[in-house]
UniProtKB/TrEMBL annotation:
This is Iron reductase. GO terms for cellular component: membrane. The lineage of its organism: Bacteria, Bacillati, Actinomycetota, Actinomycetes, Kitasatosporales. It is a multi-pass membrane protein. It comes from Streptomyces hainanensis. Residues 91-221 form the Ferric oxidoreductase domain. The keyword ATP-binding does not apply. Residues 347-376 are annotated as: Disordered. Coiled coil: none annotated.
């Protein structure tokens, strides 16, 4: 005989599905990211010191562009902004590497398990978002500190906020394009990066599909750096090095597309399990061809030395693209994201079951990736 007064405890899987946002997971990852973020601050400090030394000894490329910044003690916030920008780009590079290793064929090293790489990817992602935020905040502070137009306090804060945080708000020069690209990368990084913590609501399939677009955030960040980073403003070995460092990343992306960890993502043109639908087949083939073209383009840039940099005594080329081109591209990307989300959304009576099956928790996903994968 059963006790009718005994409370009914719902299955753990259903409790997880009921949560719209995985706050506990975010808090746990934030705590786990403390050592990583601490290291990032140390690296930022070293970059800040290196930039300062170059200003003091007269070798800074930035002071060739803006000579007034040679007064480093007065404009120290600008140099701190630069330091956060470079460390943020470095951490973005690292987190993309971890993400590609997690979703592709990982090296045969026993210590590099899927769970460990996944944890590194999450913590470095949070650190990257933090560094990008500090890059924007210190730029905001640098604009207030400079106050070239002698504005009153209220007007100065409003103008600085508009230029540092509102896409399209920077009114002049190369910054009209470069800062727009950087802010789009920042806000997309927040949305696509933190989407992991709502995967129990959206389903794991939708989250994984949307998260793949995080590579766009990295591309925009590099574009922002090469276009507006005064340390790489002019042609030279350091600018070429920044281009060259993208080659290993592009190669790793191609490897991930050719040999994904999940069998369902492999491109099969013949035999059992071959692609049954033209749209996925076209998308996968196009993606691989695009990465190959990117590698060829990077190689051409590195070998030729023609990388879009300026020459100190030469005339700068016209600013391109215009803002409307970037806004059009962002609109197209948004429509693609909406279409992907609509196509992969859980629906009907099976919604709860699909969420529980696809996005129950991170441990299930890690164990699935650690299982031996069939070859072919």
């Amino acid at each position: 005989m059963t006790d009718s007064t005994k409370p009914v405890v719902p299955p753990a899987g259903r409790r997880r599905v009921a949560r719209r946002f995985d706050g506990r997971g975010l808090w746990a990852d934030t705590r786990a990211a403390v050592p990583d973020a601490s290291l990032a601050l140390v690296i930022t400090g070293l970059v800040f010191w290196w930039l300062w030394v170059r200003v003091e000894n007269g070798t800074s490329g930035t002071t060739e562009v803006m000579p007034f910044l040679a007064d480093a003690p007065r404009y120290w916030l600008y140099w701190l902004c630069q330091a956060f920008g470079w460390s943020g780009l470095l951490w973005a590079y690292v987190t993309i590497v971890f993400g590609l290793l997690r979703s592709g064929s990982r090296p045969p090293w026993r210590w590099m398990t899927a769970a460990r790489v996944e944890k590194w990817h999450r913590t470095t992602s949070l650190t990257t978002i933090g560094l990008m935020f500090m890059h924007a905040v210190t730029f905001f502070g640098a604009e207030i500190q400079a106050n070239f137009d002698g504005q009153a306090a209220g007007d100065l804060v409003r103008t600085a906020f508009l230029e540092a945080f509102v896409p399209g708000g920077y009114p002049s020069g190369t910054g009209r394009i470069a800062i727009l690209l950087g802010l789009i990368a920042f806000y997309l990084g927040i949305v696509l990066g933190l989407a992991y913590y709502v995967r129990q609501r959206t389903g794991a399939r939708m989250w994984r599909a949307l998260h793949r677009f995080i590579i766009v955030v990295y591309v925009l960040s590099v574009w922002h750096t090469l276009l507006y980073g005064t340390n790489v403003w002019y042609d030279g070995s350091f600018r070429t090095l920044v281009w060259a460092l993208q080659m290993p990343l592009a190669g790793l992306l191609l490897l991930r597309l050719l040999a994904p960890a999940r069998p369902s993502e492999r491109l099969r043109l013949r035999g059992p399990g071959r692609e049954p639908r033209p749209l996925p087949l076209t998308a996968r083939v196009a993606g691989r061809l695009a990465v190959v073209a990117t590698i060829v383009g990077l190689a051409a840039v590195i070998v030729s030395g023609t990388d879009g940099g300026r020459t100190p005594d030469g005339a700068s080329s016209g600013l391109w693209p215009e803002q409307w081109v970037i806004w059009t591209g962002l609109l197209a990307l948004t429509l693609v994201l909406v279409a992907v989300a609509h196509r992969l959304r859980p629906s009907g009576p099976a919604t709860a079951r699909s969420r529980e099956r696809e996005g129950g928790d991170r441990e299930d996903d890690d164990r699935q990736a650690d299982l031996p994968q069939p070859t072919g």
